[in-house]
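Q: I'm teaching a short session on how sequence maps to structure, and I want students to see two examples side by side rather than one. Could you give me a first protein with its sequence written out and its structure tokens following it? Keep the formatting plain so it prints cleanly on a handout.
A: Of course. Example one:
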Amino acid sequence: MLNDADRKLQADVQAHGWHFVHVQGDATGPSYSFTVGLYKTHGHPELMVMGLEPEVSHPIMGLAVEQIKQGHVYRDGVRDDTLLDGVDCLLRAIPSELHRKYLGYNVWFYQDRPDGFPALQILWPDSQGRYPGQEGFEMEVMQPSL
């Protein structure tokens, strides 16, 4: 049985091709945001970004979706400077074993797909240009690499 949030998600994907989800951080981990519906609508991996508040992450996701509609493809292991005013973001595949933990709404949305869905994490650099997982990265708590 669908609740209001489920119906809103489905309506957004139907009308706009995607839905935005934000999860507020707590003592167990940072805030993060992700898309739902990109894979269904555009055949593109879902996107996720950690450590940003929704008023920052939503415009980033919206820009990414507009670029995807124009044919841009975000890929694992590729740096892209189109999302944060010329800052090179690094995109990394989110392992499928972490989908349920971080992207549960996508797990529900794609439950009829036996092959699941692909997803990419958008990683942004620290003040020294290092990314999560690199030695000396300054914001590991705020932005862990999955």
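Q: Perfect. Now a second example for contrast.
A: Example two:
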Amino acid sequence: MSKFGELIDAQVPVLLDFFTEWNEPSIAMNEVIRHVAAALGDKAKVIKIDIDKNQELAEALRIKGLPTLMIYKSGQMVWRQSGELDANTLISIVKEQA
């Protein structure tokens, strides 16, 4: 969990994508997340977290629906949503947090 604290304690927005390899909506978001990361460059960090490999973290954050997307800024959660979004919407939301 201390690693998680280091991940989210950034001056730029940190977009987290909680997913699994077997969940259809999670798989569908892979391309979107890749596009968002490329479009934002160094203006944000984009991190994918497999909840099957990080069950303790997923439970602590009460991840229920997949994919779950979160944005942290300076260690604080500023936005959260479960479900799929298109790349342009997600880019806009991240930029609003910058």
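Q: What should students look for in example two?
A: Point them to this: The chain has a mean pLDDT of 95. Also worth mentioning: Residues 14 and 48 are 11 Å apart (CA to CA).
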